[in-house]
């Protein structure tokens, strides 16, 4: 029974939605801000809607998913996520509407426009597209106005792009044999060894960027712990891991980072 729930947890994209929410929450905490509950629920629902639509729209139309229970569950979850997104969208500020438009434009280019610069067919830039969207929704959009987006927020925005790029490279390696793109991905061009060094460089740039922020001792310790765990997990994901490790554990690094933050915060409280 537990294996079935775990399988559904991964197939339904809940692990991705949880990772996005965890990253948004921890980013806000490092800046000593709070993310509203409405935005957290919207972000979770929007992630489910986007990823499930991306993965299952065509298979559901062509009836390629044989399990009736899985089809029903995926459709139900995606529809509920869409309704929640529409309902909470009315609570957004003007700045959040504008940032949503930018994220949607990038997401639409990624999914719907094969010839676009930021499409999935452009292996060199598709990873950057994902990183940009994640950085927008986890760093910029939690702010209600442009005034709230100061220099430290922009610094964290750039650092988060590097963080997501580091996490994406193990996924590119996992899919390297299956990807048949117009322009090859970074991993396909560099190979595992150089891609691993690049991932560690991206991770180090995230770490350095976050160190520039004004942090308390508990925040420093949480950041160092997250960096150390991520460096090990990325190495395993690039050299020794099976697909499950990448999908479950590498994707869970933002959640692990949030748990580390909360743990050190409560320890020093």
Molecular structure report:
The protein starts with a helix and ends with a helix. It has helices spanning 2-11, 14-30, 37-61, 68-89, 94-112, 123-140, 151-174, 186-211, 217-239, 243-250, 253-268. The chain contains 11 helices and no strands. The protein is an all-alpha fold and 269 residues long. Helix content is 77%, strand content 0%.
How would you briefly describe this protein structure?
Helices cover 77% and strands 0% of the residues.
Mean pLDDT: 88
Cα shape: globular
Oligomer: single chain
The largest sheet is:
none
Q: Ends: how far apart?
A: 39 Å
Proportion of beta-strand residues: under 5%
The tally of helices reads 11
Element-by-element helix/strand order: HHHHHHHHHHH
What low-confidence regions span 5 or more consecutive residues with pLDDT below 50? none
- The total count of strands amounts to 0
Helix content: over 70%
Radius of gyration: 18 Å
Q: Which structural class should the secondary elements be placed in?
A: mainly alpha
Q: How is the topology of this model organized?
A:
Elements: H1 2-11, H2 14-30, H3 37-61, H4 68-89, H5 94-112, H6 123-140, H7 151-174, H8 186-211, H9 217-239, H10 243-250, H11 253-268
Helix pairs in contact: 2-3, 2-6, 2-11, 3-4, 5-6, 6-7, 7-8, 7-9, 7-10, 8-9, 9-10, 9-11
Defining traits:
mainly alpha; globular; 77% helix; 269 residues; 11 helices; 0% strand
